[in-house]
Design brief:
The protein is mostly helical. The protein has a single domain, classed as Winged helix-like DNA-binding domain superfamily/Winged helix DNA-binding domain (Arc Repressor Mutant, subunit A, Orthogonal Bundle). Helices cover 44% and strands 5% of the residues. The protein contains 6 helices and 2 strands; from the N terminus they run H-H-H-E-E-H-H-H. It has a two-stranded antiparallel ribbon. A hairpin with a 5-residue loop joins strand 1 and strand 2. Helix 1 crosses helix 6 and helix 2 crosses helix 3.
Amino acid sequence: MRLTEFTDHALRLLMYLGARYGRMATIDEVARQYGMSRNHLAKVVNELAEVGVIMTVRGRSGGIWLAQDPRDIRLGEVVRRTEPNFHMAQCFGGGDAAGCPFGTACLLRWSLAQATEAYLAELNRLSLAELLATARTPAPDRHQATLAPCIKESTS
């Protein structure tokens, strides 16, 4: 299962805004910080504003900020809202099993649907605030490393 670039940008945007909760940021600022396309990020901002996760003000003095407390933003809900087609198999996309010869009796289709729900439920256990609390540097400079190496050199 792979998240789209749209969802990746949405999660990074929320992390940026969450790290600055109560303050306004601009699309240009976030795009520059994370090396994102400004136009693509603007689409993400529109979607998140439409579902009420962030607030926006247009114009010269405008910006974006979280509309909800970071403790109330569940990652699974963000993923669910930003993934337009969260189907693990082709047969998920249409009506009655989308032409699958096994139809609605297919155990694979049911199992994949259950796995998708479990994946989203697991993400829903984590709030934006919890995600930020575990980050060493919530809004890192993209030119500097933020995490220690995962593998330590052997001393033997």
